[in-house]
Design brief:
Elements (H helix, E strand, L loop, with lengths): L2 E4 L2 E4 L18 E8 L2 E2 L2 H11 L13 H13 L7 E10 L2 E10 L12 E6 L17 H14 L3 E6 L2 E5 L3 E6 L2 E4 L10 H9 L6 E3 L4 H6 L2 E6 L3 E8 L2 E2 L3 H11 L1
Parallel strand pairs: 7-8, 7-14, 11-12
Antiparallel strand pairs: 1-2, 1-6, 3-4, 3-5, 5-6, 8-9, 10-11, 10-13, 13-14, 14-15
């Protein structure tokens, strides 16, 4: 039976109050974090918590004094402990201000290891030019974006794509679920946060973990840059790193992507 954590109270889905019941997205607005739990251990928890509390004031949410890293970790641990044991899962931690009061909700879902392992079959992406997202500074936040996660992903499914690429003013910013990176002549690039892409925790992990030999830097991604790239990959906290094999008529290799994944995750 699925157990959720609503404001520190563990409930079955049937016991959930109306404001969080009956919707896959639960809260219709606010911020959220999706964490990977691997072998029972939450990954990059500090990065997720820091992004959450930095973002809350930007969307006019106050941060309660009790909402600390320790509280964040303990509530996740309580929620995991209430579930049937599974070594790998996704944790979704949502926050919202309802009628002036801070609310949080934690849900879990079981993951197969293939979700976060490097894919042997390359992903296929498609480009769209639809206003699914605000690419101002608030674009760096993990906001609950119903049009993007419903209409955008449905479009990808119908066209046989694994994800969509979001563009703004002829610049490719990110995918519908991930940060985008490209490799050209053994150098790795990703769009800067000033373009309005999500400040991804896995993106941050790459910048903190990779030594200078990998030559990682920020650069605006144009269609011409995309077409000239040798390799493309996506990153997010749960899927980690996914190799992209095709975008429209362009095909991409995988050799350096494999080396990156092995260095980062063994």
């Amino acid at each position: 039976m699925q157990i959720i954590n609503y404001n520190g109270v563990l409930l079955t889905e049937q016991e959930a109050p109306p404001q969080v019941g009956g919707s896959v997205f639960r809260f219709s607005s606010g911020l959220f974090e999706s964490l990977l739990v691997k072998d029972g251990a939450p990954q990059l928890s500090a990065f997720h918590f820091e992004r959450l509390v930095r973002g809350m004031p930007q969307v006019q949410m106050s941060v309660p004094e009790y909402f600390t890293q320790h509280f964040f970790d303990e509530q996740i641990k309580r929620t995991l402990s209430a579930q049937s044991y599974t070594p790998h899962c996704r944790v979704r931690f949502q926050v919202e201000q309802l009628q002036g009061q801070f609310h949080f909700l934690i849900e879990t879902s079981v993951l197969d290891a293939s979700v976060f392992e490097l894919n042997e079959k390359g992903w296929k992406l498609g480009l769209i030019d639809l206003p699914f997202k605000d690419f101002t500074i608030n674009g760096n936040l993990k906001s609950i974006n119903l049009p993007l996660y419903t209409a955008g992903m449905e479009m990808a499914r119908k066209k046989g794509w694994d994800d969509i690429l979001l563009a703004q003013d002829q610049h490719i910013i990110e995918s519908g679920t991930s940060n985008i990176f490209w490799i050209r002549n053994s150098e790795i690039f990703t769009p800067p946060l000033s373009e309005g892409c999500i400040e991804g925790t896995m993106r941050r992990y790459l910048f903190s973990k990779l030594p200078p030999v990998f030559s990682l830097s920020e650069r605006t991604l144009t269609l011409q840059e995309l077409q000239a790239a040798d390799e493309i990959f996506l990153t997010n906290a749960v899927r980690r790193l996914k190799w992209v094999q095709q975008i429209e008529d362009c095909l991409y290799k995988q050799s350096m992507v494999k080396a990156l994944y092995k260095f980062l995750f063994g």
